[in-house]
Amino acid sequence: MIEFDDVSFRDLEIPHLKIPEGVCAVFGPNGSGKSTFLKLLSGMELPEKGSILIDGSVPRKTESGYLSEFPDKNILFERVADEIASPLKFRHTDCSKTNEIVNRVVEKLGITHLYNKNIKKLSGGEKVLVELATAIVADPDLLILDEPDSHLDPFTAGEIFGIITELEITHVVFCTQNMERAGEIAGYAVYMEDGRVAASGTPASVFEELKGTCFYPENFPAGTG
Ligand SMILES: Nc1ncnc2c1ncn2[C@@H]1O[C@H](COP(=O)(O)OP(=O)(O)OP(=O)(O)O)[C@@H](O)[C@H]1O
């Protein structure tokens, strides 16, 4: 369980929120606080007040992987294999174990053909897959994805979300502007407005509260529109 208790940070105020295990979608208007929420969850930012616990541990003591909205910004190495291996190298995992894990992850994500490529020369979707591999290579308990679909065509976005739902990670929290997608793959949804959680619960219950707004997905459940 992810628990926010009496949390304040900048304009964000979350008195109480509990997110169960599984996949959680965070959505809401621009500037509503989604990225800030994800940064607090990752431990990149610390609350000014209150506490955030992930299965009883603070974010900075939780093994987490983070995929930013702009993967280019976080790339450290040129060669795909070196980038994906970097979280393991920073943890001083030995070389043969690192190679074994990297090989397993690239196979899982279907990107073995990119192994020796220069990341700068990859397409946007390929970069997202490489950064997703980097985010999961250290076997996180929490995977955070900030609009992983924002620069992708619908087919590639669908593929990436398909992969995300098949990963065996205790907590996956992503934000998106695609409500249909959120409803399809998430077991829990958080709708934000003005730095507040305006609705949370199953996607169906949250969408019910959003009927009549532009955040109500006409095609939910998928294929009904
Ligand atoms: N580094 C920062 N310092 C101060 N204020 C910030 C900072 N980053 C974001 N904000 C402010 O916090 C608020 C929430 O921003 P945030 O990026 O979390 O929203 P968002 O819902 O992710 O937006 P978008 O959908 O446009 O990406 C905004 O008013 C923004 O201006």
Automatic annotation (TrEMBL):
InterPro entries: AAA+_ATPase, ABC_transporter-like_ATP-bd, ABC_transporter-like_CS, ABC_transpr_CbiO/EcfA_su, ECF_ABC_transporter_ATP-bd, P-loop_NTPase. One of its GO terms (molecular function) is ATP binding. CDD domains: ABC_cobalt_CbiO_domain1. The keyword Isomerase does not apply. It is found in: Cell membrane. Gene3D superfamilies: P-loop containing nucleotide triphosphate hydrolases. PROSITE patterns: ABC_TRANSPORTER_1, ABC_TRANSPORTER_2. It is a peripheral membrane protein. GO terms for cellular component: ATP-binding cassette (ABC) transporter complex. It holds the Pfam family ABC_tran. The keyword NADP does not apply. Keywords: ATP-binding, Cell membrane, Membrane, Nucleotide-binding, Translocase, Transport. Its main location: membrane. Residues 2-219 form the ABC transporter domain. PANTHER family: ENERGY-COUPLING FACTOR TRANSPORTER ATP-BINDING PROTEIN ECFA2, HEAVY METAL TRANSPORTER. Probably part of an ABC transporter complex. Responsible for energy coupling to the transport system. This is ABC transporter related protein. It comes from Methanolacinia petrolearia (strain DSM 11571 / OCM 486 / SEBR 4847) (Methanoplanus petrolearius). The lineage of its organism: Archaea, Methanobacteriati, Methanobacteriota, Stenosarchaea group, Methanomicrobia.
